[in-house]
Amino acid sequence: MVLGVYCNNCGSPYPSEGVPYRCPKCGGIYQIKSLPQFVTQPEHNSKGIWSWLDPNCLGISENLITLGEGNTPLLKDAVKIKDHNWEVYYKCEYQNPTGSFKDRGSAVMITFLNDRGIKNVYEDSSGNAGASLAAYAARAGIKANIYIPKQASGIKKAQIKQYGANTIVVDGARSTVNEVLQNDLSRDRSSKSSYASHAYLPFNLFGYATIAVEILEQLGKEPGTVILPAGQGGGLLGVYYGFKTLYEERRITHIPSFIGVQAQACAPLWATFNYGPNGLSWVAEGDTIAEGIRIKYPVRGDEVLQAIKNSGGRIYAVNDEEIIQAGINLTQRGLLVEPTSAVVEAVLQKHVHEFNPPVVAILTGSGLKTPEAYD
C-alpha cells in the first residue's frame, strides 16, 4: 500500500501495484489520511522539493525525479488601499521550471508513476498542469498524452508540444476535454498506461505541501493568512496539509487562515461556501480570462471547503475586469503573472485589511504564457 492514502468511500488503502485513479472496489476518490512528512535537515541543493519532502511517506524509492523545482522567492511588498499600505508577501511560484506551482506536484506524481513502472500517461489540463506533467514525464522517459481545450493559451499548447508530448486539442469546455480523454483511455488496455490526473490522484498534494515549509523558513514564522487561486483547489489543499504537518510537529503555533479565489464566471466552491449545495444549481462554466481555474466540478471540492472552514478562511469570486486590473497592478511592481494568479491581487485590493497578518499571496503561474492578457 501507499502510506497515508486511502479511499474516501470504503476506506481501502491504495494498492501496492498499478496506478488506479479511482478505487477499484467502489469507485471512490483517494485521499490523504496521513500527513506529508518533511525531512528534519533539508539539503538546499538540486534535489528540488525532495530537499523538503521525505519520499518514505509515499512508500517510493530513492529514484527521485526533479527539475530543481521549489525554493521560489518570497517577496515583501505592499497593497495600497486609499492612503494606507498593507504589508503583503508574494510567494513567486511562477518561477518554477515550467512556469507554475504545478511542478511541485508533477515531481511527486511522475516519481510515483515511474516507481510503478508506468511508461505512458494521460492527462487533461487547461495548460499549466499539462505542460508541467509533460516536462517531468520527458525527464523520466515516460510518454505523455495531454488533452487541452482549444481556447487555452497558444504558448501553453506550444510548451506542451516542445516537451514531446502527444497533444490533443479539444473544441469545448474543460469538462468536454475530460470526456474525450476518458473515451480514449478506455481503449488503452496496457498495464503500463495510467491516467495521471492532477485532480483525481492525491500524490501532487504532497508536493504542494512543500510550499508551506518554505514559507515558514523564508518568513521566519507562520503567516496569519494564505491566499491563492482555487480551481480544483489542489494547491490550496496541499499547502493546508503542509501547514497542518508543521502544526502537528509543533513548529508553528497555529494554522493560517486560507483564502481561496475563483473567477466569477465559474465559481462552484464560492457558491457552495456561501449558499450551500443549492448554490451549485446556478453555477455556470462561463468564459473567463482566468482559464486555469475554470473548473465547474472540483473533484476534491468537499475536502477543499472543509480545509478552508477548519482554518477560519473563506472564498471570494472576482470578475474579469477586476482580474485584468489586478494583473496590471502587479506588472507595475515587476510581477508578471497570468490572470489565474492575478485573482488573488483582485481580492487583496478590496479585503487585505480584513486578513490576519502577515499575509502571504501565492502567485501560481507565469505571465510569460499569456503576454496579451493585459494589453
Helix content: 25-40%
Poorly predicted runs are: none
Instruction: Write the element-wise H/E pattern from the N-terminal end onward.
Output: EEEEHEHEHEHEHHEHEHHEHHE
Radius of gyration: 19 Å
Sheet of most strands: 6 strands, mixed
Distance between the termini: 51 Å
- Report the sheet-strand fraction: 15-25%
CATH fold naming of one domain: Rossmann fold
CATH architecture group name of one domain: 3-Layer(aba) Sandwich
Strands across the major sheet, in which order? 3-4-12-9-10-11
The computed structural class is alpha/beta
Q: What would the average pLDDT be, to the nearest integer?
A: 94
Overall form? globular
Number of helices: 11
How many strands appear in the DSSP assignment? 12
CATH class of one domain: Alpha Beta
Features:
single chain, 375 residues, alpha/beta, Rossmann fold, six-stranded mixed β-sheet, four-stranded parallel β-sheet
